């Protein structure tokens, strides 16, 4: 890979990491509280907690496409850097965490939550659903932190 192409790829990579991080933070910090407290904005409760959960799941289901794209880009980019001996242990650790938690989010948590929602409102009020939901939140926080770490590590290298 020529130096110019690698530089352009690095810029695109940093932008993709920033977009994924920003979208995840937006969904968790802005969208979720807005949806789950819609009665404050609307003046009365129009949606049940279950219906609000269905809306939020749609947001995260769509976010999963970006997460999967990011994971694929991370794998390709970081493997190329690793094969060129341009990777360090922190970048490798952050890469592993981004890939593992990204795939857990899109391939385990979202399908599991969708299945429980399809089983009906009663299923979403069980300890199993609560534990799955808390696990998905923790998983996504790790994904966001690892994405931020990967972004900072690569930005530092790019600015040298």
Features:
elongated; 85% helix
Order of H and E elements: HHHHH
Largest sheet: number of strands, sense, barrel closure: none
Low-confidence parts, pLDDT < 50 over ≥5 residues? none
Could you estimate the helical fraction of the residues in percent?
over 70%
How big is the Rg?
18 Å
Class per helix and strand makeup: mainly alpha
Mean pLDDT: 93
Number of strands: 0
Overall tally of structural domains: 1
What does this structure look like?
The structure is a single chain. The protein has 5 helices and no strands. The model has no long low-confidence stretch (mean pLDDT 93). The protein is 85% helix and 0% strand. The chain is elongated, with a radius of gyration of 18 Å. The longest helix has 35 residues, at 49-83. Helix 4 runs antiparallel to helix 5 (127-158). It starts with a helix and ends with a helix. It has helices spanning 3-36, 38-42, 49-83, 89-118, 127-158. The chain is mostly helical. It has one domain.
């Amino acid at each position: 890979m020529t130096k110019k192409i690698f530089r352009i790829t690095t810029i695109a990579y940093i932008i993709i990491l920033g977009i994924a991080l920003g979208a995840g933070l937006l969904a968790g910090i802005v969208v979720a509280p807005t949806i789950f407290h819609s009665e404050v904005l609307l003046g009365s409760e129009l949606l049940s907690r279950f219906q609000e959960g269905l809306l939020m799941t749609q947001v995260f289901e769509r976010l999963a496409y970006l997460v999967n794209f990011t994971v694929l880009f991370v794998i390709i980019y970081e493997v190329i850097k690793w094969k060129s001996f341009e990777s360090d242990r922190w970048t490798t650790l952050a890469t592993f965490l981004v890939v593992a938690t990204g795939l857990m989010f899109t391939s385990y948590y979202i399908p599991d939550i969708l299945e429980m929602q399809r089983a009906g409102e009663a299923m979403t009020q069980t300890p199993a659903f609560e534990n799955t939901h808390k696990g998905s939140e923790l998983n996504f926080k790790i994904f966001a932190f690892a994405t931020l770490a990967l972004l900072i590590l690569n930005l530092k290298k790019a600015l040298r």
